[in-house]
Amino acid sequence: MTAHRLSELLQLEPYQAYSYSYPHKSAYRPITQPPPLADAWASEPRDALFLYLHVPFCSYRCGFCNLFAMARPAPAQVEAYLAQMEKQLRVTADALGEHRFVRFALGGGTPTYLDAPQLQRLFDFVQRHANIDLHSIPAGIEVSPETVDAAKMKICRDAGIDRVSMGIQSFSDAEVRSLVRPQQRAVVEEAITQIRAAGIPTLNLDLIYGIAGQTVASFLSSIDSALAFQPEELYLYPLYVRPHTGLDRIGAKEGGKRSFVIHPESVDNRLALYEAGRERLLAAGYVQVSMRMFRAANAPDSGGPAYCCQSDGMVGIGCGARSYTSGLHYSSEYGVSRRSVADILAHYLERDEASFASIDYGVRLDEDERRRRFVIQSLLAQPGLDLAQYRERFGTECFDDLPQLDQLFEQGLATREDALVALNDTGLARADTIGPWLISAGVAERMRDYQLD
Hints:
The strands form 4 sheets. A 9-stranded mixed sheet has the order 10-11-9-8-7-6-5-2-12. It has a 4-stranded antiparallel sheet with strand order 1-15-14-13, with no helix packed on it. It has 19 helices and 18 strands. The protein has 2 domains: 25-296, Alpha-Beta Horseshoe (pyruvate-formate lyase- activating enzyme), CATH 3.80.30; 366-449, Arc Repressor Mutant, subunit A (Orthogonal Bundle). 39% of the residues lie in helices and 17% in strands. It has helices at residues 6-9, 37-42, 75-96, 116-129, 150-159, 173-178, 185-197, 216-227, 246-253, 270-283, 338-350, 353-356, 367-379, 387-394, 398-401, 406-410, 425-429, 431-437, 441-449; strands spanning 29-30, 49-55, 57-58, 70-71, 101-108, 139-143, 163-169, 202-209, 233-238, 286-288, 293-296, 314-317, 323-324, 328-330, 361-364, 385-386, 414-417, 420-423. The chain is an alpha/beta fold and 453 residues long.
């Protein structure tokens, strides 16, 4: 995308790609000489790490989902997966040596697809093998409404979970059906009741805009329904239809497009929906953190030891989980279709301890890619890109390294106050254009060449 001027890209459909990580996993490849895990982390700071566990199982596969997930696995497969996660965590903790985790997240998939004893088992082996105290750090879990019950929420709270994120997507039954998601409003309301009853301090609800048949009025109705529960956080996600998802297969059967295609003009109402939703949340007292994230004014401070995603490492455990050192990002393979997910999962379940002790799939980041990652992750969220922090970390001037950033000011998308560059309201609305625009030519080529299955 970097070959294009920003002014050209702004003429296109505003929703190009979600830059939630950089480089994207489609830029990962097999590593020909796999380094030992201990060597990869030896020179890295390990006193402020993020521990992420990935449970890829779900009750059903939503039509829009392009995550590494599998619906309705065999019970024996779930048991084998938990045993393998514990093995991987034990090997990883040994390779890290002296370390400390200061952030924790349990995602998926749907971690609460696990039954209560399995969920307890997971928390037990985390405490057994990792240097972590979930009661003194921010610790979150993702859930879906039909998997929430009082017993599971008590286990989560007793373990130290202080944030639950639940995908609602819409409070309209018709819109939920359009997403190929068998969900009923009554189930959602009961799930929220159970989360609140467990005393978990932070509730996040996810909503989607751009659903077939959705209007500004219906979207605002879903937002108002969510606000009635006074969630501490709300995420508004634009709908993307990606290859090999359920909505993509439905579109193909109906003669539609096989994937999201760049259009020269706006062809849907997502921007109007976003603007209306943003206005409603700001009026309700929420603060916008990024294009997608809104936080209530009374939301509790996350607290805990300091962690910076731009400089501190992430350790991912489980099939599909990413790990980040400063110069190497790694994971298992990436797939979306049920067949590819099943194949990757089968390979994960066959791995022995020796294989977990080395890194065989990922992407190395040279100095230019590290700079781009810092800029993308800082710029797309508030308070913005701190030029002094950039200089301190890299020893160079940000605008000398990435002169294309001047185009943000030319297009009226950002402001600069002292050393802080921040996207304005118009810039935040175009975050899914700005993110892809900042991708390097090399990473863009790797992503284009990736054969997704």
